[in-house]
Write the structure tokens for this entry.
Amino acid sequence: MIEQWLLFTATAIIIVIAGIFISYFGNAIAVRTGLGGLWIGVVLIAFATSLPELTTAVSAGRLGVPNLSAGDLFGSGIYNLAILAALDLIYYRRKMLKSVTLGHVVSGGLAIVMTAAAAIFIILRSDYSIAWISWSSLILLLIYIDGIWLVKRNEEAISKKRLESRTKKAEVKVSAFLLERPWWQLGLGMTAAALAIFIAAPLMITAANKISLATGLKETFFGTLLIAFVTSLPELAVSVTAVRLGAFDLVVGNIFGSNSFNMATLVVLDIFYTKGSIFAVISPINAITGLFIILITTLALMGLVFHSEKRYLFVEPDAVLILILCGLAMFLVWRF
């Protein structure tokens, strides 16, 4: 038992460190391609910081423990939103949610739609499939692809110069050293960090499954509270750095983009879980977690749209409410 906890801790540390490196390498590559802050956050950085969730899904699917990964994906969404609210409170002078472009309404909307669809499929216990791959997974994938296209079109439609001028300098500072490295070094760094995650993730999932069985903890609970916390730390590292440098669009785009990507990762879990549709076996408590993600994301979007200059006791009421709801969601997962 102690050996499994040591293995879980060691592999978790490896995943966190590698995930942080991937985030910075990904940001450097994204900035050097000349893409805008919103697009970088929603797609490239979201993919980089969500790589631990992706590899966890592959491992959980192959080991036949889908609820560990599902708990991780939905729990990571809660943690990500808690990070957003906590940073808005800690750096209250920056007024983060009041300073980002309204283009994030589209990326936040995509996260809501993806989470709602996944929750509906779980509640319906959807088992219609082609071979072992669920139709629900294919629908989620199509929604994600269409949503990313809309995000890109929306970024082109809004005032792009205003968006880029707000984030360009900050993004460069985030990866100032890496921006000076040649392309082959960035590629080698990304590959090495990704390889570390691909090796560590299966070991972490194996250890987590054994701990879950030995302690009697449910897979969903373990995945939502512990594994999700580990896999959300890369988002935390990137977000803290970006907020300190004023790259607010990068932060919000990363959080919303990661939550959308997490729901799309259910498709990967379904592919590697060959016993049938994952939506027929995933615990319904994940749907409840999904409903909290929808509610909290909606509150965050309301805070983003409502550009009030007034704060109460130096804090944002919407940020405080988001943290309370995140805590309530985690309590319900533990309780049920």
Remarks:
- The two ends are 25 Å apart (CA to CA).
- DSSP finds 13 helices and two strands in the chain.
- Strands lie at 129-130, 133-134.
- The chain has one domain: 2-335.
